[in-house]
Amino acid sequence: MDTSLFTNANFQLINVVVLLAGLASFTWLLLSIPLRVYRRASSRFAIANLFLIFAMLFSNWQKPDEAGSLWLLADIGVLFALVYYKLAICQLFHRSIHPRLVTGVVAIAGIALVASLFGASNHTFLNALICLLAAVITLFTARIKYISLHLEFSAWMARVLAIPDLLLAGILYVLVSGLLFAADNTSVAPLQPAGSNTVAWLYIAFCLLLNCSGIAATITRLVLRMKHLADRDQLTGLPNRKVAFRQLESQWQEYKITNKTFSVFILDLDAFKRINTMYGHEQGDVAITFVGDLLNRAVRVCDFAARLGGQEFLIVLPGNELRNARHVASKLCALFAKSRWRAHTPPLTVSIGCAEARQADSLEQLITLAEKALRKAKLQGRNQVVCASVAEEETYSLVSSSSY
Question: Which CDD domains does its entry note (predicted)?
Fold first, then answer.
């Protein structure tokens, strides 16, 4: 065996990897514990770096004239680093985590380690198997990240953000190829950083990519979270006024292109000022939250519900003519009339103004028609649905208004 391969430069590069992984692990722990930034995901990123440190230390302790058991442990450390990296990505993007993944990896690693300890003659094959498994896990992680990001960004942006994971898998496949197709049969294989300056540099790139990808995923998730909060009403969790009018504009443009009509409701909670006066503003917030929850459960997946502000809400029903919309609105009124928002108090009632896209020449006119219909419903006694029409038969009264 050529012991000249084991130079001080190689060990210094390994120490650089240990230092980088140590700093990264400390940073992730800071994010997890004091700063509480995605605590579970940050903790898993920290654990991934700790496994990488162990892998480098085992590789550093391996002597060239001994069997490669410590190198196998180093490879297993890299494998578990990538397993915890995948678990962190799944946690960040709310993807399901299969417990069998960890169980299977532990089983394979245990079998490989036992085979090594009990005299397996071909350590190179075991190392290649562990490394190949790590590459496959990394590819699955890249796929999870791409699918999650594609839901929020364009396809090309999702691909760009998944590139670090693909590079990680590429490094591992290069190492597998070096192991399986090495010209000699020495135990100094390209997978071991101590055996090659090139591979030591690959491990430095591996450490940097692992953490850069984790940081990019965390920042992306934070941006998406802030965007979500900026677009949501804090009390009900429904989209806010800005998003509501953006959705209306999009729906109107689709209607102008495809001539597929849609209807709009403006829903107002009756006697809201009286609720605040009698029960206090805190209970008024409870009433608004109740309305938001009920609307969120009542509308279809294809429909859109938002809070415009105060006690007013907007509902958009794609593909619904005014007659169908009135039927849906009347069912909503009935649902509110029989739902209890607070013990020992009368139920909430709502008034709804409806309008259909075909009744208007512009989006502004459509909204005005719905608002006028809502005012008419209020003037006629509340707890009723009024559609944008002067005909009396377009008024559908459910029950007499409840008084507080």
Answer: GGDEF
Q: What is the DSSP string of 215-254?
A: HHHHHHHHHHHHHHHHTB-TTT-SB-HHHHHHHHHHHHHH
Q: What does the pLDDT look like over 264-318, one tens digit per residue?
A: 999 999 988 888 888 888 999 999 999 999 998 888 888 999 999 999 999 999 9
User: Tens digits of per-residue pLDDT, 337-369?
Assistant: 888 888 778 888 999 999 999 999 999 999 999
What architecture is domain 3-230?
A: Up-down Bundle (1.20)
N- to C-terminal Cα separation, the chain: 92
How far is the C-alpha of 116 from the C-alpha of 123, rounded, in Å? Answer: 7
CATH entry, 241-397, from 3.30.70.270, 3.40.50.1000, 3.30.160.100, 3.40.50.1820: 3.30.70.270
Enter the tokens of residue 228. 């979500």
Give me 288's structure tokens.
Answer: 């608004």
Distance CA 276, CA 317 (A): 31
pTM: 0.73
